[in-house]
């Protein structure tokens, strides 16, 4: 059993429309408030060798990434720290503050508690006009599907590729790109925090479409395999669909990796893509 299975339970209680996007959207007149929260903890999210500053940076970045994927402008981040050691709070707070400032947000609040394992929850708040709000729900057959960033680099670092260590521990949320893509009129968008494959399945389910991915078109950095690009997480690029008419989008680096189909399947070279990526699991029955 993994977190996606458990999300089905939540979805049965609060509604599918509340669990099928990167963020929650609340309408306020002709503007929208965008909210997202993420929990990270030492054993699964903070690889050995990260500094406390990097832990703070990563915690803010993962949440700013979700805000960016809706086409929103980030406003503020709240950080709740469950600390195993009290002296870690300064490095973590400085890292989160630097990340927020770099991407135009304010580290504006949070909470502090004791916890046996360092656990950080970040909550992001952003705003977006009606016309630019993007969700996982707008992909249409005939659109093309594209990805920004360098998929697989964070995964390569986890396997020991030291040149990609910064990609893993100081991820850069695509805040500028998300906004430019939203204004350009993409049809759907999400971040690829859990890897391209799982993200394609999420997008497929939310939009009720399928994808045909062309493996040769997946952008691979030197030494990064297609396996890592598809199935490892932590890269925080954006996956988006659009009509060809809006391309190119100026000042955004993206790669066209396939087409949207009406089949409901996620295929790569005609074969179903394995539904595997970064997820949290529980042993069945426990
Ligand atoms: N326990 C929960 N209760 C209510 N809503 C939840 C819960 N867990 C997740 N959600 C909502 O479900 C949606 C999908 O969550 P998910 O964690 O898969 O997205 P994400 O944050 O983009 O991914 P990641 O966790 O990889 O950052 C989000 O809108 C999220 O707010
Ligand atoms: C061991 C290890 N594997 C991967 C990563 C990269 N990473 C950081 S946050 C995140 C997804 C969002 O988390 P969540 O789904 O819990 O919200 C991922 C995949 C890491 N830092 N450490
Ligand atoms: Mg996301
Ligand atoms: Mg998230
Ligand atoms: Mg999440």
TrEMBL record:
Keywords: ATP-binding, Kinase, Magnesium, Metal-binding, Nucleotide-binding, Thiamine biosynthesis, Transferase
SUPFAM superfamilies (UniProt xref): PurM C-terminal domain-like, PurM N-terminal domain-like
Top EC category: transferase
A single GO BP: thiamine biosynthetic process
One GO MF term attached to the UniProt entry: magnesium ion binding
Binding positions (Mg(2+) 3): 22, 66, 191
Domain spans labelled PurM-like C-terminal: 140-247
A Pfam family it matches: AIRS
Binding of Mg(2+) 2, residues: 38, 66
Binding site for Mg(2+) 4: 22, 36, 66
InterPro entries: PurM-like_C_dom, PurM-like_C_sf, PurM-like_N, PurM-like_N_sf, ThiL-like
UniProt key word Metal-binding: yes
Binding site for substrate: 45, 278
Chain residues that bind Mg(2+) 1: 37-38, 111
Catalytic activity: thiamine phosphate + ATP = thiamine diphosphate + ADP
Documented EC number(s): 2.7.4.16
Domain PurM-like N-terminal: 21-128
Pathway: Cofactor biosynthesis; thiamine diphosphate biosynthesis; thiamine diphosphate from thiamine phosphate: step 1/1
Binding sites annotated in the UniProt record for Mg(2+) 5: 194
Binding site for ATP: 110-111, 136, 193
Function statement: Catalyzes the ATP-dependent phosphorylation of thiamine-monophosphate (TMP) to form thiamine-pyrophosphate (TPP), the active form of vitamin B1.
NCBIfam families, sorted: thiL (TIGR01379)
UniProt similarity note: Belongs to the thiamine-monophosphate kinase family.
Extra facts: Reaction mechanism of ThiL seems to utilize a direct, inline transfer of the gamma-phosphate of ATP to TMP rather than a phosphorylated enzyme intermediate.
Protein's name in the database: Thiamine-monophosphate kinase
The organism's taxonomic lineage, starting at the top: Archaea, Methanobacteriati, Methanobacteriota, Stenosarchaea group, Methanomicrobia
């Amino acid at each position: 059993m993994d977190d996606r299975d458990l999300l089905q339970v939540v979805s049965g209680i609060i509604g599918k429309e509340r669990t099928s996007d990167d963020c929650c959207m609340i309408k306020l007149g002709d503007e929208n408030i965008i909210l997202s929260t993420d929990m990270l903890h030492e054993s699964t999210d903070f690889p050995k060798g990260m500094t406390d500053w990097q832990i703070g940076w990563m915690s803010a970045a993962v949440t700013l990434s979700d805000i960016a994927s809706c086409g929103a402008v980030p406003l503020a981040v709240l950080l709740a720290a469950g600390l195993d050691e009290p002296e870690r709070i300064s490095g973590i707070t400085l890292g989160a503050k630097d990340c927020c400032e770099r991407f135009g947000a304010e580290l504006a609040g949070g909470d502090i508690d004791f916890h046996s394992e360092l656990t950080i929850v970040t909550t992001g708040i952003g705003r977006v006009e009606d016309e630019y709000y993007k969700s996982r729900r707008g992909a249409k057959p005939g659109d093309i599907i594209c990805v920004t960033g360098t998929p697989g680099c964070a995964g390569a670092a986890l396997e020991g590729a030291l040149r990609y260590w910064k990609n893993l521990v100081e991820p850069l949320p695509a805040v500028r790109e998300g906004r430019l893509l939203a204004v350009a009129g993409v049809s759907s968008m999400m971040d690829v925090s859990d890897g391209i494959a799982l993200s394609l399945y999420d997008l497929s389910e939310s939009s009720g479409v399928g994808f045909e991915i062309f493996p040769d078109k997946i952008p691979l950095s030197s030494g990064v395999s297609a396996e890592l690009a598809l199935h490892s997480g932590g890269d925080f690029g954006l996956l988006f669909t659009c009509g060809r008419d809006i391309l190119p989008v100026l000042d955004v680096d993206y790669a066209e990796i396939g087409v949207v189909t009406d089949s409901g399947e996620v295929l790569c070279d005609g074969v179903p893509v394995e539904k595997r990526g970064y997820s949290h699991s529980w042993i069945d029955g426990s």
